[in-house]
Amino acid sequence: MTFYYPGIEAHDSADRSVLGTKPVVRPEALIKVDRIAHLVFEVEDLGPQEAFMQDFGLRTVEKSDTHLFMAGSGVDPFIYCAQKGKVSRYVGAAYVANSASDLEVLARTVEGASAVEDFEGPGGGSRVILTDPFGFKVYVMHGQKEKPVDEFEREKPLPVNTPFNKQRVNRGQRPEFRPTNVFKLGHIVLRGQDFQSAAHWYMRTLGVIPSDVNCDHDGNPRMMFGRLDRGDQPADHHTVAIAGGAPESVFVHAAFETLDIDEIGQGQQYLASKGWDHNWGIGRHILGSQLFDYWFDPHGFEFEHYADGDVYTADHPTGYGFTDRSGIWMWGPDLPMTANKLSPEERETKRGGIDPRSGKPRPWM
Question: In angstroms, rounded to a whole number, what is the distance separating the alpha carbons of residues 57 and 153?
Fold first, then answer.
């Protein structure tokens, strides 16, 4: 299936005919994880990191001289962990297994897997520690104690007046000036040298399904937006996105879900008032359809607020499109010419080989 986006008209029918001719083939999965749970980083200074994440919308659960655990409003006991380190780096991400026996399967089957061990952090439970082909850690959890869902300041989008339906009469829109209410960790994007081995590993090890695949002009897959296999239960369009062709493994960004565009927009104002570094947004993506806004933390890592993302069941077919600028976003500011925390070479590496300065993102621009 070829996905449509504004700008694909720049590729004629002969060009587009290569899409899907070299499909990403799913291996049989060892297990099928249910959701992404939390991120783990090492950072040089926990103080500024905590301040940024609080302004971004997370809440401190536990803090020591060596660790910082922070939660969203959802059920996960924490969604972000920072460990004090000499060098700031992305360590890995955790996923929730559906059964304790799934951990045993991974410990027994996956090369380099740890034994099943108790987890001593918030929520407890047990886990297996794996290493993906990019060298990042993958923690597969089971038995963590979930927390109650925190009360949202708003649980419904603001009432909208349209030409055909006036829901709001004699009152205005006054979103509260505060951090975005972050509900959950939604997805991560990673890039490394070998796309095929990493994509195969995530599909086989965690049951990831390719929702959409970006290809080069010969039809070779270069990036996979993968969702989790939850059967008939809808899953986010992508929970882990994998790209290849980088000289070294890099963490591109992580995204956290909130309610609507007003949560994103008012949160943008709040983060700006605190002096944090904005990167890109607000806009709407094509693959996943999310409303987005990107920020840099104090150590140069990129984090996204998003809302209104697509969800698919397991039987939805894979889409194929080209790796170009026009397939990244539907509307919003152009992809940044520079990124505050990165050199031009580092920025190009993170962006999946797409140079924002090259070519027109839309035929009419």
Answer: 12
* Contact between 175 and 265 (Cβ < 8 Å): yes
Provide the residue range defining the domain that includes 271: 8-144+183-350
**Is residue 155 domain-resident?**
no
DSSP state for residue 167 in the 8-state scheme? -
- Write out the chain's pLDDT in tens, 365 residues: 666 666 677 778 888 899 999 999 999 999 999 999 999 999 999 999 999 999 999 999 999 999 999 999 999 999 999 999 999 999 999 999 999 999 999 999 999 999 999 999 999 999 999 999 999 999 999 999 999 999 877 888 899 999 999 999 999 999 999 999 999 999 999 999 999 999 999 999 999 999 999 999 899 999 999 999 999 999 999 999 999 999 999 999 999 999 999 999 999 999 999 999 999 999 999 999 999 999 999 999 999 999 999 999 999 999 999 988 878 899 999 888 544 455 545 555 555 555 444 456 555 55
Please, are residues 145 and 122 in contact by the beta-carbon 8 Å criterion? no
Total domain count for the chain? 1
Residue 166 in domain = no
